[in-house]
Amino acid sequence: MLAAIEASTSMSSMKESGIKVCCSSGKPSATGGCGDYSPTGKLVQLAASGPAAYYTRPKEGPLCSNSALIVIYDIFGIDILQTRRFADLLAERTHRRVVMPDVFRGRPWLLKNFPPKDGGEFIKWVETAGSWDVVSADLKSAHEFLLADGLNSSAPLGILGFCWGGKQAIQACSGDSYARKLGFKFLAGVSLHGAFLGPEDAKHVTVPMLFMPAGDDPDIGPIKVILDKKPFGAQCAYHRFDSETHGFAAARGDWNVSHTRKAIMKALDLTAEFFNKHLPN
């Protein structure tokens, strides 16, 4: 499996290392200590041509209509309770609407097929099912849904991506290239134990981002070096969870493990603080 990854000559060493970690760390689960958790959000249908999505908002208190959040899940899809729980709590802590589109259309990488036996097949699947063409169209559908739900027409968005979704967050925050034709703006992005990341991606970023790698994820230094040189470089933030493995806040996390639960809550707090700082309230 790893040989197929190493055979790719177009990958930076950082991106190659990140994919290896993604394909080998931890045992994924659809519940991860959240078996008794009842999500507060619901499944909705986005635009007629778009996918389903998990939509959540704060149960109590004010609801911000000047900005909203989009979440891109990890390779295991929309039905992971740990991911939904994070989205629910993020909505509560930010008082914002949160939408998580089902980019994989009900066909994520199956838990039973992890780790992948064929690295080439896995990479091809990710690059096809999760291509920027697919993701950007779903971001537009999510935005249309948010507008119909009461978000102000000129409101900017923030984006959080887990694992593979961290790559999509970087692209969504690249306003002069990947995100140029979206028709709306992301003002902040968060990559939580992101995978498929490389310094070449950072060159296109145009807004502040927060990076939170796990202990076995590649050093984020090459990305930081590039972002430090940008006008908003000092507004970017970084926090490494040294004691956790890749995927700890999503499908490979277990809320019943004390240190992991604390790390998840720390990541949640940092994410909420970052969005509250960089998005209009």
TrEMBL record:
GO terms for molecular function: hydrolase activity. InterPro entries: AB_hydrolase_fold, Dienelactn_hydro. Pfam families: DLH (PF01738). SUPFAM superfamilies: alpha/beta-Hydrolases. Residues 53-278 form the Dienelactone hydrolase domain. This is Carboxymethylenebutenolidase, variant 2.
